[in-house]
């Protein structure tokens, strides 16, 4: 396991180097950056040194450090990703296990068919459709933005719910309710395809486990169905889903970048679109670097968690 983890770190470092080259090329396309009388290679070395130190440059529009701006908008994106992933896990895992247990019934076949439509519908179209439907029916969750404009909250962590809980306002409960209303509809939009995908992955893995020989051995020993599912099915299904769930999280993250502008969420996606509109090459380069580092960190963390949770991979410690 240790050797695999070291190789994964090396591959991640190489990917980061390639990503830094791409972000540097974006800076080269900026007409305000004049590299005619300077060494491009040395400028890249200086740029790479600044990246290692956490310096992403400054914005041409506001003149503020880009690192501070990204850290200010990233919590909103992360909050929505986590809420959509939580919704997908709470609904998708039990539905997937149910579909695996009753795969030959009509309801099981229906769930299998629904799972195949996980990423069929465009999430951008789904977001506009649900927002229109919620607005026409005057649902309270038909809200755009992060919080109602009548409320003011001091940004301590960047996460709205956490900042509201830390505030000492007399309207704390109302602010919490407003934040949840603004979070509900985009979470539902992202959670629908994510739930179907989690259900499909869980069902496929559970069916594979149920076909193994140790399942038949447990039946011959007289184990109850509950004990078989608790010991074998869940123990061999859930750890194998960790890398798949991490991949799903990155997919949710990519989808959210597309819909943040629809719901006026002050996240990294909307911030990047605004940078593209005003052609702020420094901000575009910094955003591509920050998004790449985030996705690579998630993949690296999922690989480590899979190795620690999967019993089949722990044997590598003793080789």
Automatic annotation (TrEMBL):
Which top-rank group of organisms is this from? Bacteria
Spans traversing the lipid bilayer = 6-28, 40-61, 73-98, 110-134, 240-263, 283-309
Tell me which InterPro entries the record gives.
Answer: MetI-like (IPR000515), MetI-like_sf (IPR035906)
Q: Where in the cell is it found?
A: Cell inner membrane; Cell membrane
By its UniProt entry, which Pfam families does this protein fall under? BPD_transp_1
Keywords, A to Z, come to: Cell inner membrane, Cell membrane, Membrane, Transmembrane, Transmembrane helix, Transport
The UniProt entry lists membrane topology as: Multi-pass membrane protein
Where in the numbering of this chain does the ABC transmembrane type-1 domain appear? 74-302
Give the family this protein belongs to, as stated in its UniProt record. Belongs to the binding-protein-dependent transport system permease family. OppBC subfamily.
Q: What name goes with this protein? A: ABC transporter permease subunit
User: What organism is recorded for this protein?
Assistant: Haemophilus sputorum
Lineage of the species this protein comes from: Bacteria, Pseudomonadati, Pseudomonadota, Gammaproteobacteria, Pasteurellales
